[in-house]
Amino acid sequence: MCPMTFKRKKLLKLHSSTYHIAKTYKCQMCPKSYKSQYLLKAHSTCHEFHKIAKTYKCQMCPKTYRSQYLLKAHSATHEVFRCEICNDPFRTNFNLMKHRIDIHKIGCSVKCPICNIELESSTLLTAHMKSLHSEKHGGFRCAVCKIFFVGVLTLMRHKERYHRRGKFTV
């Protein structure tokens, strides 16, 4: 019989369940066994260095992690989301979308003042103007207002609409 005495029944139960129950809890890391889960848990801290010794190394940088889960979470930081307009890199898709809205005004459609085509952003409008409505790429300039047009029909429609002086020559 145990010589221990307790003033509270709760403490007696805790002591009994810890030291006087025949059930044993075996350690998964070594051959030792204990009479309570509490003691087993306390013992298992001596095996913590084994967990720390096993590390998972990132393939893209020198960082190491104690679990595959942490390594996987870290690896996501190496994923790059590139802007299709300016090719700037972003760590998250959210940051890319924010950049597209704030910088390139994606989602704020604009119309080309020359051909009335609707474009997703002012950046795309600038590219459209340079590639289609500039002298470098051929085309036709209005003699009255100097606006540049891709085709002769577009120029004639423009002149009829805005300059109305009868028949025009190109």
What report would you give on this structure?
The chain has about 170 residues and is α+β, with helices and mostly antiparallel strands. The chain has a domain at about 110-160: Double Stranded RNA Binding Domain (2-Layer Sandwich). Helices cover about 40% and strands about 10% of the residues. The protein has 7 helices and 10 strands. A hairpin with a 6-residue loop joins strand 9 and strand 10 (about 150). The longest helix has 11 residues, at about 10-20. About 0% of the residues are buried. The model has no long low-confidence stretch (mean pLDDT about 75).
Poorly predicted regions are none
What fraction strand? 5-15%
Structural class: alpha+beta
The main β sheet shows up as: 2 strands, antiparallel
Radius of gyration: 38 Å
The level-1 CATH class of the domain at 110-162: Alpha Beta
Topology pattern, helix = H, strand = E: HEEHHEEHEEHEEHEEH
Rounded mean pLDDT score: 77
The helix content, as a percent range, equals: 25-40%
Number of helices: 7
Please identify, by name, the CATH architecture of the domain at 110-162: 2-Layer Sandwich
- Report the end-to-end length measured between terminal Cα atoms: 116 Å
CATH topology of the domain at 110-162: Double Stranded RNA Binding Domain
If strands are numbered along the chain, what order do they take across the biggest sheet? Answer: 1-2
Gross geometry: rod-shaped
Beta strands, count: 10
Topology record:
Layout: H1 9-19, E1 25-26, E2 33-34, H2 37-44, H3 48-53, E3 56-57, E4 64-65, H4 68-75, E5 81-82, E6 89-90, H5 93-102, E7 110-111, E8 118-119, H6 122-132, E9 140-141, E10 148-149, H7 152-162
Antiparallel strand pairs: 1-2, 3-4, 5-6, 7-8, 9-10
